[in-house]
Amino acid sequence: MKKILLTILIILPLTQIYSSDFQDSTRFSNSKFFKFFTSPKYIISPFAFYLPETNLVIGAGIKRFYNFGKDNDSLTRVSNIAASIQYSLNGQFLMRSQYQIFTNQEKYYITGYMGYSRFPITYYGIGNDIDMTKGETIAFNYIRFDNLTYRRVGKNSFAGLGWRYMNMYNVSMKENSMLESQNIQGRYGSSVSGINISYLLDNRDNILTPSKGVFAQVIYSIHHKATASSHAFNRWQIDTRYYFKPFRKREDVLSFQGYGFLSVGDVPFNELAQMGGDMIMRGYFQGSYRDKNLLALQTEYRLQVLKRWGLTGFAGLGGISDEMGAFNINALKPSYGGGLRFKINRKENVNLRMDYGFGNGQQNIYFFIAEAF
Length: 373
Fold this sequence. Notes:
The protein is mainly β. It has one domain (103-369): Porin, CATH 2.40.160.50. The chain is built from two helices and 19 strands. It has a 17-stranded antiparallel β-sheet, covered by helices on one side. The protein has a two-stranded antiparallel sheet with strand order 13-14. The radius of gyration is 21 Å and the shape is globular.
């Protein structure tokens, strides 16, 4: 089956090493190099995987943890900054950084993404009527900057303002491709620039591995010539989540998510809602189904087996449409699967997850740090 993930290899110190795991007498314990790689404030992850369209990919990532709260501050949650780089034998390149920062007493919350890539995607068309045997490979350079700065406005609630910029250029595709024959918006590239306006309610106990609490986020993005965007369109992203422990004497977690991506206007194909990937409707290739609107419901049960090890089962139901009023319940698609969890950082309660998802003849395997939602 085309684009199935054939082999994934994670070269990761699964038994995350801490200085305290070694005898104090070790002659390396005072080395700055040793402390950098063994500090519980870091996760360092070399990795490699193989895809038919990329050949062998190698890379590495690092995630750094901070707490900007003062001593004995139980309010300020742990912040994290992550960066990764990867390169394939086909000459494809990806470099990105993501961050979630809580200032002292969580007066401000800053979150965002910066990245550059030259990687292929497989394009199957727009809408529900696609043929998975007729995907086309499209490659392009892609620069992305997406930021939101929130200010606390109430207990666990924040109002945010930010900027997003996406530049897709040097697009290459085969002759008479679907993008050209169907006259798809943004087929020769796009420069999308706009304002993010957001409201956030968040009382989760941990942003990377939540076990209780509520998360509700609404982001309204405005793209116009006045904001230096090549395409004029607006979109809403609505993300609601709920977490709780069903048993008092266990660490199991039951979680639910409702997600909506709604857009109107002149939306370039790479800015359409995309079903699939490692977060929304796992099992589907990201972007195999894409359109202006996406609605999805997901649930996951995380079973704690041992102190570091856990299992999970998940299921979802989602669909896409060109217009909000055109959602067809008969066209909704299922997603389901299971996974393995390993707690690589006990102090910050951070998991390495491996998920295997299925959906409508597709399947995918995922290795990531932190939960899907």
